[in-house]
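Q: I'm building a small set of examples for a reading group on sequence design. Run inverse folding on the following structure and report the sequence directly after it, with nothing in between.
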């Protein structure tokens, strides 16, 4: 069993990541659901737990491997009128859906089992897709800003001027480097105003994609299972599993019929009636029953995440208490009420959300320092902090020979200067 899941071992290592670029609802999609579907894909393709996926018996002279291969790659079927539990209890029928068949009898064909591994794998990729799109768009900006600051608390006791490397992955920054990194965080935050105006828009778009993908996969799975997935969960909960036929037998039959035709010695077409044991459906019924409940939970989480996003859009520039509570949860500790008031009044939602993720990814005492400097700059809209690589921003320019961190914006002659941020 361990050898089977060794293929997924690189994906199942839940390492703590210092950098957070999304919320909990995102992680339910691209971590939990993605890995669950990969595990399910591995289960339905493994033979060591259930043996052969299909084993058929026929009274003719057809070799067993031939009839097994034929019935697996084509379709098996069951007879609808033989889904009769009373006849099963009386011993008239051997299995649900299996019995004598006449020409006019309606039948139910089962071909989905051939596609289950492919469908589960494709669904896994679709749940990872929105996260991949957001990660590419985010471009590692947060990581580049806060990288190395997670051990900054220790830098207060580290008096050397050079950085200290601890193992292959961790570096303890000196005090001077910590201060320089904080100035970079402040500068890049204001550059974010001009360069990344649609940062929050892409984030919300990917959150909407998560919800739409969840709905799409529920609809697709229902079509894939012959429109019997909608009420699979309630039918499962109502079932007591004490009889000879349960609710899952009609969707995932364990025994089916298969007809194999071949020419006889004189050229006459002969029909061979085969009885097939569908061992794979023992796994399929448990996978899709579990997925029904999981998709319901995931759908609820996705809807709540979007409602929360709407709430933040409405309250981020209207309620000081809301902004203070959100930032306090992201960065534990008491924040200056004046700082909260300034960022509530002055920041658009994209800067507000970017500031929230800075709070989540920085130590609390460092974030308060950066927040103090950011609010000081916001209190003076005539001065902004720019990246020296940017020559003009929104019709403004700065002197190229100015080496100060804080550069005074000078209006271009052909445009009337307007503050970048307007009060709400």
């Amino acid at each position: 069993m361990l050898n089977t899941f060794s293929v997924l071992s690189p994906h199942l290592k839940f390492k703590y990541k210092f950098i957070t670029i999304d919320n909990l609802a995102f992680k339910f999609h691209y971590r939990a659901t993605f890995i669950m579907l990969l595990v399910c894909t591995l289960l339905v393709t493994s033979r060591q737990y259930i043996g052969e996926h299909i084993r058929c018996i026929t009274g003719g002279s057809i070799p067993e491997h031939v009839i097994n291969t034929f019935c697996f790659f084509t379709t098996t079927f069951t007879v609808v009128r033989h889904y009769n539990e009373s006849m099963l209890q009386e011993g008239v029928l051997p299995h649900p859906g299996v019995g004598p068949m006449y020409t006019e009898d309606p039948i139910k064909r089962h071909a989905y089992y051939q596609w289950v591994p492919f469908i589960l794998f494709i669904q896994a990729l679709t749940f990872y897709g929105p996260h991949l799109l957001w990660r590419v768009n985010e471009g590692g900006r947060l990581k580049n800003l806060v990288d190395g600051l997670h051990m900054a608390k220790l830098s207060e006791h580290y008096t050397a001027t050079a950085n200290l490397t601890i193992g292959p992955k961790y570096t303890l920054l000196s005090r001077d480097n910590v201060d320089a990194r904080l100035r970079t965080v402040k500068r890049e935050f204001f550059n974010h105003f001009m360069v990344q105006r649609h940062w929050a828009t892409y984030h919300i778009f990917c959150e909407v994609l998560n919800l739409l993908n969840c709905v799409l996969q529920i609809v697709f799975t229902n079509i894939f299972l012959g429109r019997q997935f909608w009420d699979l969960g309630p039918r499962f909960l109502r079932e007591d599993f004490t009889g000879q036929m349960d609710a899952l037998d009609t969707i995932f039959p364990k025994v089916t019929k298969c007809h194999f035709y071949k020419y006889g010695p004189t050229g006459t077409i002969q029909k061979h009636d085969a009885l097939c044991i569908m061992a794979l459906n023992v796994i399929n019924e448990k996978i899709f029953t579990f997925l029904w409940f999981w998709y319901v939970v995931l759908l609820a989480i996705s809807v709540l995440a979007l409602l929360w996003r709407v709430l933040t859009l409405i309250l981020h520039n209207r309620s000081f208490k809301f902004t203070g509570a959100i930032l306090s949860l992201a960065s534990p500790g008491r924040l200056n009420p004046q700082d909260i008031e300034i960022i509530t009044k002055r920041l658009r939602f994209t800067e507000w959300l970017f500031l929230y993720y800075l709070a989540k990814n920085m130590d609390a005492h460092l974030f308060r320092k950066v927040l103090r400097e950011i609010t000081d700059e916001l209190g003076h809209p005539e001065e902004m902090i720019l990246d020296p690589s940017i020559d003009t921003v929104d019709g403004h320019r700065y002197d190229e020979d100015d080496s100060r961190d804080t550069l005074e914006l000078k209006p271009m002659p052909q445009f009337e200067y307007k503050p970048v941020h307007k009060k709400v």
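Residues 280-315 form the longest helix (36 residues).
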